[in-house]
Write a structure and sequence with these properties.
The structure holds two protein chains of two kinds.
Chain A (H helix, E strand, L loop, with lengths): L2 H21 L3 H26 L7 H17 L5 H25 L4 H19 L1 H4 L5 E2 L9 H24 L1 H11 L1 H6 L4 H27 L1 E2 L6 H14 L6 H16 L4 H18 L4 H8 L10
Antiparallel strand pairs in A: 1-2
Helix pairs in contact in A: 1-7, 2-7, 2-10, 2-11, 2-12, 3-4, 3-5, 3-10, 4-10, 7-8, 8-10, 11-12, 11-13, 12-13
Chain B lengths: L4 E11 L2 E11 L4 E5 L6 H9 L4 E8 L2 E2 L5 H6 L2 E4 L11 H8 L7 H12 L18 H14 L4 E5 L7 H16 L4 E5 L3 H7 L2 E6 L2 E7 H6 L1 H11 L7
Parallel strand pairs in B: 3-8, 3-9, 6-7, 7-8
Antiparallel strand pairs in B: 1-2, 1-4, 4-5, 9-10
Classes of the chains: A mainly alpha, B alpha/beta.
The structure holds adenosine-5'-triphosphate and magnesium ion.
Chain lengths: 313, 248
């Protein structure tokens, strides 16, 4: 794929959002697509952080949840419009991400996954326990962006947000930051020895990917309208990781493929009940790890002719 | 522009009371290749790390051309023209060879035209990596990866290149491949090289001058041909000290 194709992808998503909103999808399909954007933003930004920068943080879903609850707070207590939260929350969550980045600078190897895992767990417990603020497991309710149950607006918005994600991703991967993130991922000490500013690169990677997670959370809150602490289960985090890994971690379009695969499976097996969905997806994730080490996209691109084989970076 | 390296009475101690290098002297002429050989644990890697600024220097002087560098930190030494290719594998495995090369000149990225020129030049340098510039560095053979590391070490136009056992762990075929390219690099007379090597024959074949280290000190030195002539005696000397090759 050439640079031009990478730049056309955002346009494609915006156009798709517009088009689908016009043809009037069945509600169940529209819901599936709109929430897929939430997962695409999460799996995509986690891929940038883990797949490209090598920072395996498991607090990502926690950041999205913070974005969602922050949105609820701003709307319910602050009286702001949902539209404003779509701008404010990414910035606020970016600061949280910067804090995580500071932690990441001080730890090595398996410590980051463990610490972020613990953070997310503690946050989930807090959300359930602080029931005077969060309403506990009963959840919080917030209004839609526009009155009524108009899904077409969210299809358009989803297309725009997905497009925005790919613009940011192109800018990162093809630019200086992407080069340095990958150098740190592959060999931090050597990169440091070559004059790469580890501090700035890590903090930037954490803040930008956190902003995208915050955007995802805010979008989720504004669309779903009901927030419960279960949004931040480790199962959800596993889901996001599975999407990135099944599609292809460290590949530009890996998470997109992963989201399409997993959300389609979910759609077709939904009759069996949620517990089976998880089992089936775990099974598929295992198969992918066993047979296509680097994800589906790496396998497919290897089957294709030489010039198109370089999907990654 | 390459410079001579002069090392005087260099001392290195990783822990305060255990000196690994106990006063090493060395001279590497501008644009020459100086090989450093010696038994395991003699302090060869430590010497290169001391020069690169990644091991603590506790005494002595290091002159690169007219500049004293022993007090500079590692990044400053890169800026002063020191390039270190460590013993262990160090390519950015999932990045392309070209991306690896680009990072080799990262400290001088402001000079864009120069950097592009250097990347093109160093990508062209070694026959066996030239066809693979767009491939992932981690997918190349061990010997080719080592050549990528060396080429990357040259992108910044260093005045001094430090190579620590570039053929450690490589098959004999790859050892020959790497040494063929090191020989070509030396013939170009464009950079001063300090080369640490266990494969004594290969090192002697390519070096101008050879130093022998033992127990953290100079053992002997001389022109490569001369050292080759009395190599048997030198190695016998190591054997007699085997097990006590380390400084203590
Ligand atoms: N980071 C370190 N901390 C403490 N001691 C070290 C460290 N690195 C090396 N040493 C010690 O310094 C001594 C010299 O090690 P060095 O790696 O310089 O030897 P060498 O001549 O390169 O040996 P080899 O041929 O096996 O690579 C050894 O006794 C080693 O244990
Ligand atoms: Mg060594």
């Amino acid at each position: 794929m050439t640079k031009l194709t990478h730049h056309l992808v955002p346009l494609l998503f915006v156009a798709a959002g517009l088009g689908l909103s016009l043809i009037g999808l069945r509600p169940v399909v529209a819901d599936l697509l709109i929430l897929s954007v939430y997962y695409l933003l999460l799996a995509g930004s986690w891929n940038l952080l883990a797949g490209f920068a090598g920072q395996y943080s498991f607090a990502h879903i926690g950041l999205a949840t913070a974005g969602a609850y922050g949105t609820a707070a701003l709307v319910i207590a602050g009286g702001l419009s949902g539209w404003a939260t779509l701008v404010i929350m990414p910035l606020a969550v970016a600061l949280l991400g910067g804090g995580l980045g500071l932690v990441a600078l001080r730890v090595r190897g398996v410590q980051l996954p463990l610490i972020t895992f613990a953070f997310a767990g503690a946050f989930a417990v807090f959300l359930a326990a602080a029931s005077d603020i969060t309403n506990g497991s009963m959840g919080l309710q917030l209004p839609k962006l526009v009155p009524g149950f108009d899904r077409s607006l969210y299809l358009v918005l989803g297309g725009i947000l997905a497009g925005l994600f790919f613009i940011v991703q192109n800018w990162m991967i093809d630019g200086k930051l992407g080069l340095l993130m990958q150098a740190i991922r592959d060999n931090e000490d050597i990169a440091h020895g070559m004059g790469v500013g580890i501090f700035r690169v890590k903090i930037a990677a954490f803040m930008i990917t956190a902003a995208i997670a915050g955007l995802a959370g805010s979008f989720y809150a504004n669309y779903v309208g009901v927030l419960a602490p279960s949004m931040l289960s480790m199962g959800e985090m596993g889901y996001v990781v599975a999407m990135a890994v099944i599609g292809g971690l460290g590949y530009r379009y890996g998470p997109l493929i992963g989201v399409v695969i997993i959300r389609s499976i979910e759609y077709f097996v939904r009759g069996f009940g949620a517990e089976y969905t998880l089992v089936i997806i775990t099974g598929i994730a295992l198969l992918v790890v066993l047979f296509f080490r680097e994800g589906v996209i790496a396998y497919v691109s290897r089957l294709m002719p030489r010039q198109t084989a370089r999907w990654r970076s | 522009m390459s410079e001579a390296i002069t090392i005087k009475g260099l001392r290195v101690a990783y822990e305060s009371d255990i000196e690994i290098l106990r006063g090493v002297d060395m001279l590497g002429g501008a644009n020459t290749l100086t090989a450093i050989i010696g038994p395991n644990g003699a302090g060869k890697s430590t010497l290169l790390k001391g020069v690169a600024g990644v091991a603590p220097v506790t005494g002595g002087e290091i002159h690169l051309g007219g500049q004293r560098i022993e007090a500079l930190n590692a990044a400053q030494r890169v800026g002063a023209g020191v390039s270190f290719v460590p013993q262990e594998a160090s390519v950015f495995g999932q990045m392309t060879v070209l991306e690896n090369l680009r990072l080799g000149g990262w400290h001088r990225r402001k000079d864009k035209a120069w950097l592009e020129r250097r990347i093109a030049f160093c990508g062209d340098l070694f026959h066996s990596i030239k066809p693979h510039l767009e491939r992932r560095a981690g997918d190349l053979s061990g010997g080719q990866q080592k050549l990528v590391e060396i080429a990357r070490g040259l992108v910044g136009e260093p005045r001094l290149l430090l190579l620590d056992e570039p053929t450690a762990g490589l098959s004999p075929v790859m050892v020959r491949e790497v040494y063929r390219e090191i020989a070509r690099l030396k013939e170009s007379r464009s950079v001063t090289v300090l080369l640490v090597e266990q494969n004594v024959r290969e090192a002697l074949a390519v070096a101008d001058h050879v130093y022998v280290l033992a127990m953290g000190q100079n053992d002997t030195d001389g022109p490569a041909a001369e050292i080759a002539g009395r190599l048997d005696g030198i190695v016998r000397n190591w054997m007699s000290r085997e097990g006590s090759g380390m400084a203590s």
